[in-house]
Amino acid sequence: MTQLILVRHGETDWNKQNRVQGALDIPLNCEGGEEARRISNELSGFKIDVVYSSPVSCSCSTACEIATTRSLKVKKINELNELNHGVWQGLLLKDIKKRYKKQYNTWKASPTSVRPPKGESIRVAYDRAVSAMHKIVDKHKNEGICIVSGDIILSIIKCYLKNIDLERVWEFTSGEPWEVFEL
Q1: Which of 37, 55, 59, 104 is 20 to 30 A from 43, alpha carbon to alpha carbon?
Q2: Based on the structure, what is the number of domains in the chain?
Q3: 74-118 per-position pLDDT tens digit
Q4: Where residue 136 sits, what CATH number does that domain have?
């Protein structure tokens, strides 16, 4: 049996400020470093043979906390990068809601029908993230796999694994920092 553990990266200053990070490389803050260590400790009872991560530093730092305690190296792959939010990246959520009100409201109500301006669609992110997950799982059959990434990418993968319509992707964001799947 293959065990897949999906882990959301620790907190960044931008997360704390409600600033859209998207695919930008923002490091963990002090709380995020503590969160990464706590997650690593919580996962100590799980067999983890391999750790994959998005290449951005907040995901890599979280993944390194998990990998180091097991004498593993983190495998970074671009396909696990968070959704590119285009011109929304770097903006405060309240400003996006004000400046892009109609588009943002549509995106939240029906995420597959619209995308952030100059950003990536949920469907494109779904295709790359699910494809990457399949390649990882196929390569590591009957092993413990840990994937660390951003909230939306992990929510997309959870929709796939739970066979839930992608329109419900927001139901899986900002939940527990990690979840285990038996495949």
Answers
A1: 55
A2: 1
A3: 999 999 999 999 999 999 999 999 999 999 999 999 999 999 999
A4: 3.40.50.1240
82 as an active site residue: the answer is yes
Q: Are 7 and 28 in contact (CB under 8 A)?
A: no
Listing DSSP states for 13-67 in one string gives HHHHHTB--TTS---B-HHHHHHHHHHHHHGGGS---EEEE-SSHHHHHHHHHHH
Give yes or no: 176 in active site. no
Catalytic site residue from 65, 82, 85, 120: 82
The H-or-E segment that residue 105 falls in is helix 101-109
Selected catalytic residue, list 9, 11, 85, 120: 9
Q: Which residue segment(s) compose the domain that 174 sits in?
A: 3-182
What are residue 144's phi and psi, to 5 degrees?
A: -95, 120
Burial label, 49 (beta-carbon count in 10 A; 0-12, 13-18, 19+): middle
176 C-beta neighbours (distance < 10 Å), count? 11
The SS3 of residue 74 is strand
| Residue 174 in this model has a pLDDT that exceeds 80 | no
